[in-house]
Specification:
The complex is a heterotrimer of chains A (297), B (312) and C (248).
Chain A lengths: L5 H32 L6 H19 L5 H23 L9 H23 L15 E4 L2 E4 H23 L1 H11 L1 H6 L4 H23 L9 H16 L4 H21 L1 H18 L12
Antiparallel strand pairs in A: 1-2
Helix pairs in contact in A: 1-5, 1-8, 1-9, 1-10, 2-3, 2-4, 2-8, 2-9, 3-8, 5-6, 9-10, 9-11, 10-11
Chain B lengths: L2 H19 L6 H26 L8 H16 L5 H23 L4 H21 L1 H4 L5 E2 L10 H23 L2 H11 L1 H5 L5 H27 L1 E2 L6 H14 L6 H19 L3 H15 L3 H15 L2
Antiparallel strand pairs in B: 1-2
Helix pairs in contact in B: 2-7, 2-10, 2-11, 2-12, 3-4, 3-5, 3-10, 4-5, 4-10, 7-10, 8-10, 11-12, 11-14
Chain C lengths: L2 E10 L2 E11 L4 E5 L6 H8 L7 E6 L2 E2 L5 H6 L2 E4 L11 H12 L15 H10 L15 H14 L4 E5 L7 H18 L2 E5 L3 H7 L2 E6 L2 E6 L1 H6 L1 H7 L7
Parallel strand pairs in C: 3-8, 3-9, 6-7, 7-8
Antiparallel strand pairs in C: 1-2, 1-4, 4-5, 9-10
């Protein structure tokens, strides 16, 4: 087992960091929805996938317009968010009075439906989106090259995290959301329209997933199956970090990103098992995650 | 009005007779589908012991199915063990795995419980997927033959029928026993059950083991029926699929899951011949179930019959 | 002395819910614990029955230290309990609810083979009768009226043939008529079976009608204990309850 040279390791680590940012975007949406509404959204990976597909679609339409990539990203993520809100408002909402299993299975039904809908619309070919002009090219780090686009992503991740942290902690909206996570009945009794709040939360969560998918389109192949692949990793991140814990999700994403990128080099066959064992250990020893707090759920 | 109570036995016997006569249709398709349905029916009933009767949402039942399939196939081919022993070993190994995993799972509730069952089952999947030398990895473990005296599809069909019927009778017996009644009280109210003197975790663990045992037997049958074992039977959508079968048939009735397995597998075969968009159809069926038919097919029928009887 | 609670203390994140509570209950006594909301009554019950771990102190039941025992073991020793929010098995029939408790009490819980439908029929129906639910055996317990559910809960607790019965607010949410009927029932059963009763209550009329001894809890501490007359005359008790209106 000979270790590769340090600069290569650093690049791999940066790759892991990039991947972690995408995981963070998806997982934070998942964690938000679970923390506030108690719904574990299996379809979150599907929303991510749709974000990627929609970006590809919008890019192909707007390719001649200035700033086409960013417009595509914006519209794709908002489109996914709108879809999420629609599903929550007209379908998911009716299942709240039932046991949680029903909600879980409904989100799984969505996975099945949305993945085939994507196939129907875009077929089974692989797509890719080219990076926007200003972010093409790479930067030299210790003798190796690292894409500029990825660097932007690495900075974008914490930026989004800080933005949401600020919103959740300092604004009235944020406080309402946190209150709903703790006790929705009392909040309803206080006159807050909890139903509308849930739709907003789902919108935000879906937007985050859609954004993740939109931003990953230049890096990763847009292909059927990307929904299933990402949702399990998102679950692992949320479990390890703590369901409903914001910084926990960030930490979990960082850990997973590094394990995948560095673990592949050192112990390729075991890194996958290691991730699941980590998930199991967290659930056994500290079910509320590394940074979560013990809750009724 | 006790009309309903004595009617089910003759109906069941009739159904059993029809099932036993399937091979006489000389249709390979019917025998194939029949074996598949019986195997998955047993799998679904063993899951329902946890889901419908004990109230435990296991999202990792595929682990035991897969463990049973791999154990039996590997012991038969690599260790040259005779089928009877390999088959029994599969069941025992399934029960032991359920004991190991279940020990940790029953300490958690609801969503965390479901997550842990999923995590354990994914670990088993990764092991099967990556341990190429043992399991053949992604290429699967192929060339599993019929056992010596059961070397035709029809013979294996009857063997499967016998195993499944005996298993169902045993499971049924356990469910209508005092033990089974306690499982339902655990489902209804674990806190209260604790305070009538029951160690709830112990009972949940026993239920887990029984369920794991029979799921593994179903898996062992499947490995032979399929003449191969692939890791995808361990991948988490497989656990979702058996959950769907159980709920489609009706999780509050004993044979509901068998009905669900039958309907689902039949539909899948039919739909697959027309279109490749089976997941879409399945998703729509599942969604309709959740919104309109929470009791599943059997629940729906029981409801209709109940209404008919109430009319003068 | 069937139950002895010694120096029991429990704090949640710095908030001390139960503070150095000590008292004992004699066999056959009908003892009530009263106190304003938040006094710590339900917490105290949860500490006794093993649903919450203690920070400090000891609970001794029939000369056995039950401080660290799990709830199901404590139940098997002969301590029964009803809960504040109705705790029954909604999708089982009334008969099946009682029968389940009887099954466990008679040690048949690990029987995997006997069909359960006819087991212990007489015993279960006798209990149904004693709590006034004789004709409701086949009703789905979840669909019962609230008062009947409370009676069923009492029946489930009695089916384990406890020697000491803890009742947490047995008449909560009941009308005046239901309250007096329940209390009359509870008192009669306790006397018939020689049960020791320890119950919490808000309704003072109830307490003074059947309790032989009263314990007054306030902010997690026992402020006094004694006969109903003694407690009624105690100036500190009057101060604690000054301005307290009884909710019924």
């Amino acid at each position: 087992m000979n270790l590769p040279d340090p600069s290569f390791l650093i690049i791999q680590s940066l790759n892991g960091l990039t991947y972690a940012m995408f995981l963070f975007l998806i997982a934070s949406g998942l964690s938000l929805i679970f923390g506030v509404m108690g719904v574990l959204n299996f379809a979150h990976g599907s929303l991510y996938m749709l974000g990627a597909y929609l970006t590809h679609q919008f890019v192909s339409w707007f390719i001649d317009a200035p700033g086409y990539f960013w417009w595509a990203v914006l519209l794709a993520s908002l489109g996914v968010a709108a879809l999420g809100a629609f599903i929550e408002r007209f379908f998911l909402r009716h299942l709240y009075i039932r046991e949680e299993l029903n909600q879980l299975l409904f989100t799984y039904a969505l996975v099945l439906i949305l993945s085939d809908v994507a196939k129907l619309i875009w077929g089974t070919d692989q797509f890719s989106v080219s990076r926007p002009a200003i972010l093409k090219g790479a930067v030299e780090i210790l003798g190796q090259y690292f894409p500029k686009y990825n660097i932007v992503i690495i900075f974008l991740g914490p930026l989004v995290a800080l933005l949401f942290w600020f919103i959740l902690l300092r604004t009235r909206w944020g406080r309402t959301i946190r209150a709903a996570a703790l006790d929705r009945e009392t909040l309803g009794a206080l006159g807050v329209n909890v139903n509308r709040l849930f739709t907003v939360v789902f919108f935000i969560g879906a937007w985050l997933a859609g954004l993740g998918g939109a931003l990953v389109s230049p890096i990763s192949a847009i292909v059927p199956g990307m929904d299933v692949e990402v949702i399990i990793n998102a679950f692992i991140v949320v479990v390890i970090g703590g369901m409903g814990s914001f910084w926990g999700t960030f930490l979990g994403a960082l850990i997973l990103g590094q394990v995948y990128s560095l673990g592949i080099l050192i112990l390729p066959r075991l890194s996958m098992v290691f991730i699941y064992i980590l998930m199991v250990l967290v659930l056994i020893i500290r079910p509320w995650g590394l940074l979560g707090r013990p809750m009724q759920r | 009005m006790s009309g309903r109570n004595w009617l089910w036995l003759p109906i069941l016997c009739l159904v059993l007779l029809l099932v036993a006569l399937v091979p006489l249709t000389e249709s390979r398709y019917a025998v194939f589908l029949g074996t598949d349905i019986l195997i998955h029916g047993l799998f679904a009933v063993s899951l329902n012991l946890l889901l419908g009767y004990t109230g435990l949402v296991s999202f990792g039942q595929a682990a035991y199915f897969g463990i049973g399939a791999y154990t039996c196939a590997l012991l038969m081919k690599k260790a040259a063990l005779n089928f009877a022993l390999a088959f029994a070993a599969a069941g025992v190994f399934g029960a032991l795995s359920a004991l190991l995993f279940g020990f940790f799972c029953v300490r958690l509730t609801k969503i965390y419980f479901a997550m842990l069952t999923l995590a354990f089952s994914q670990i088993v999947w990764v092991i099967a997927f990556k341990w190429n030398s043992l399991t053949g990895g992604d290429n699967g473990f192929v060339g599993v033959p019929f056992p010596q005296n059961l070397d035709s599809a029809v013979r294996f069909y009857y063997f499967t029928l016998a195993v499944v019927v005996v298993s169902l009778v045993l499971i049924r017996q356990a469910l209508i026993s005092p033990f089974g009644r306690i499982l339902t009280t655990i489902r209804e109210n674990p806190e209260r059950t604790e305070f009538i003197g029951i160690n709830v975790k112990l009972f949940q663990l026993i239920a887990f083991m029984i369920s794991g045992f029979f799921s593994a037997l179903a898996g062992a049958l499947f490995g032979i029926f399929n003449h191969s074992v692939f890791p995808d039977i361990l991948f988490w959508p497989a656990s979702a699929e058996v959950l769907i079968m159980t709920i489609l048939g009706g999780m509050y009735s004993f044979l509901g899951p068998v009905v669900g397995a039958g309907v689902l597998l039949y539909l899948r075969m039919q739909v697959a011949s027309y279109t490749e968009y089976w997941p879409l159809i399945l998703g729509l069926i599942l969604a309709s179930l959740l919104f309109f038919f929470p009791g599943g097919i059997v629940g729906f029928i029981q409801d209709r019959l109940g209404r008919l009887r109430r009319k003068p | 002395m069937i139950l002895s609670v010694e120096g029991v203390t429990k704090a949640f994140d710095g908030f001390v819910a139960v503070r150095e509570v000590s008292f004992s209950v004699e066999k056959g006594e009908l003892c009530a614990i009263i106190g304003p909301n938040g006094a710590g009554k339900t917490t105290l019950f949860n500490l006794i029955t093993g649903h919450l771990p203690l920070d400090r102190g000891r609970v001794v039941f029939k000369d056995v230290d039950i401080t660290r025992l799990r709830p199901h073991r404590i139940c098997r020793l002969g301590l029964g309990r009803s809960f504040q929010r109705t705790n029954i098995f909604p999708r089982l029939t009334v008969f099946e609810n009682i029968q389940a408790a009887v099954l466990v009490h008679r040690g048949r819980s690990l029987d995997f083979f006997t069909p359960v439908a006819a087991l212990f029929r007489e015993e279960s129906e006798a209990i149904l009768e004693s709590v006034g639910l004789r004709d409701q055996g086949r009703t789905m317990s979840g669909s019962l009226a609230y008062g009947f559910q409370k009676q069923l809960e009492l029946g489930i607790a009695l089916a384990s043939q406890p020697e000491l019965l803890l009742l947490d607010e047995p008449t909560a949410g009941m009308s005046a008529k239901e309250t007096s009927a329940t209390i009359e029932l509870v008192g009669r059963i306790a006397r018939e079976k020689g049960l020791t009763l320890l119950f919490t209550e808000h309704d003072m009329a109830v307490v003074f009608s059947i309790a032989e001894r009263i314990l007054v809890l306030h902010q997690g501490r026992v402020i006094t204990t004694g006969s109903p007359e003694e407690v009624r005359a105690n100036p500190e008790v009057q101060k604690v309850y000054l301005g307290e209106t009884r909710c019924s």
